[in-house]
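Q: What does the predicted 3D structure of ABC transporter ATP-binding protein look like?
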Amino acid sequence: MRHHGRTPRHTAHAEALRLVRVTKSYGTDDGGADRVTALDDITLSLPAGTFTAVMGPSGSGKSTLLHCAAGLDRPDSGVVAVDGEEMSGGPGPARSEAALTRFRRTRVGFVFQQYNLLPTLTVAQNTILPLKLAGRRVDRQRVERVLTDVGLGDRLGHRPDQLSGGQRQRVAIARALVTEPSVIFADEPTGALDTRSARDVLRLLQEAVRLHGRTVVMVTHDPVAASYADTVQFLADGRLAGQLTAPTVDAVAERLAHLGDNIPMGV
Ligand SMILES: Nc1ncnc2c1ncn2[C@@H]1O[C@H](COP(=O)(O)OP(=O)(O)OP(=O)(O)O)[C@@H](O)[C@H]1O
């Protein structure tokens, strides 16, 4: 089976994302039975210019990992750093909400399964929203270029309900790219798409990595989607459970089927 993710263009990698001993639990603090450990001591380092897929069974902590890594949620303990700069700390001095929001707006981009576009805004207005929210200058030509790059140069004035699912997700990718973030987090970006639209979206994420040097972290259930990544990180019960480099669809499916068996770590 063909591997869609090729070696990234850049060879000398800085570290784009680092998690050190990150833990996160939900439920009451009294140690009661309803307490769930969603992330259990996660340490992970992702070089800049790489495409990583995160996979694991339902409830294994994928979304929690993405949200903590992206600064949408705070870990209970541990450190998250983007571009070597600490985003949120456990016991140490945590950034204020406002500072965290500013940090997110400049360093990270998001792509969600359900696109999260504002229905009353046009394609162009949705795309520039992160720049406006960050109080940054809007370079109209650049916005048009980003939208042209995702194949929507002729749709600038359309509203989301005039677009297909695949086109909406491409707007979401343009919106994630427009701020030139270091890391783009994608949560099941192809979950609602047909095969062809999914492929277009995955290729755009690959291009963001190869052509623009971004770092992409994508949660997915789909071995085909994961095969576009350079590396797959597996999660089981809130812990890292090995990785696959240059993943093929078959190898990913095989590994997923055996998650929870005693697989050697880091193979
Ligand atoms: N807000 C919350 N309150 C309580 N428990 C939560 C909350 N969010 C997640 N959990 C629990 O934490 C664990 C990890 O959830 P998470 O959503 O990260 O898993 P996931 O791997 O993304 O699952 P899925 O593939 O089903 O989306 C699960 O046991 C879940 O029930």
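A (community wiki): The structure tokens above were generated from the sequence. The chain has one domain: 15-257. The beta strands are 15-26, 36-47, 51-55, 77-82, 85-89, 108-112, 183-187, 215-219, 231-236, 239-245.
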